[in-house]
Give the backbone structure.
Amino acid sequence: MTAGGRILYIDDDAALRRLTQRALARRGFEVTLAEDGASGVAMAAATPFDLVAVDHYMPGMDGLETLTRLRALPEPPPVVYVTGSEEGQIAVAALKAGAADYVVKTVGENFFDLLANAIEQVMRHAALSQAKERAEAELRASNGRLETLLREVNHRVANSLQLVSALVSLQSNALADEGARAALRDTQRRIEAIAQVHRRLYTSNHVDSVDMEDYLGALVRELAETWSTEAAPRHVRLTAEPIVLPTDRAVSLGVIVNELVSNACKYAYPGDAAGEIRVALRRTPDGFELIVEDDGIGIDPGATPRGTGLGSRVISAMAKSLRSTVVYDPTHRGVRATLQAALA
C-alpha cells in the first residue's frame, strides 16, 4: 500500500476513470478502478480499501444504490460521493445515506485537487475514529479486568473475615469467663457486619459501592435472629430508601447500625420483656439520615455505663470517618440515635 492509501474509484466513464487514477497516483494514492456499481461493490467486498469514491450517474446501479450496498458490507469503507455541479439535493441524499463527504465534479485539474483533499480528510477522520474505538475497547477491557480483580479481592476478603469470625467464635466458646465471652461475641458481630459488605460486592454488578437497603436488610435480620429468643423476643424493623454508598462509608454505617441495634437489644428492654427496635435510612437534601430507636427504658445520664464502653467508642470512631456524629434525642421515650452524613 502506498503512503496515501488504497482507493477504489467507481465511475462508468472510462476516460475519467483513467484520468482520476493518474491524478490520484501522482498524489500518492494507489487507485483501483471499477466501471459500475455492481463490480465496485464486489471488489470492495473481496478486498479491503481505505476509501471508495463513487460517481452518481451510472447505468443500472446508480451511485446512491451503490453507496447503500457498500454501507451494508460487514466492514464498510468510508465513501466520498461524486456529484454534478448543480445537484445539491443528491449530495444531501448521499450524506444521509452514509457518505462521509462529497465532491462536485468539474472540468480540469481542480476536480482532482478537490477529490484528493476530500479523500485525505475523510481518511484522516476515519483513522481518528478507529483509534478512538480501539482506545475505548481497550479501556472497556481494562475496566472489565479490574472489576473481575476487585470482585475476586472482595470474595477473598469476605472469606477471610468469615474465617476470622469462626476463629473468634471458637475462642469465645473455649472461655469460662462470661464477660470475656460476651466481648468476643460482640467482636464477632462487628466482623460479620463488615463481611456482609464484601459478600455483596463480589455478588453484585458493582464492585465499589453498596446498595444500603439490601445490605441493612440482611444485617438487621441477622441481628434479630442473634438477639431474639422465645423468652425475650426482639423485633428489628427496617425502613430504608434506595441509597447507594461507597464501600468505606457502607462499612462505617453498617458497624454503627450493628452497635446501636445490639445495644438496644441488650439494654433497652429489661428482663424477658419483648421489644421493638426500628432502623430508618432516608435521603436528605445533603446526603442521608440514619435513625435507630427503641421504646425501652432509655438512658440515665447519671448512671454508670453498662458494658465496657467499647461500643460507644466504636460508634464515635465510625461516625467520625463519615465526618459526622451520632446525636441522641433526650425527649424520646426510649433511645433515639440520629446520624446525618453526605453520600460520599
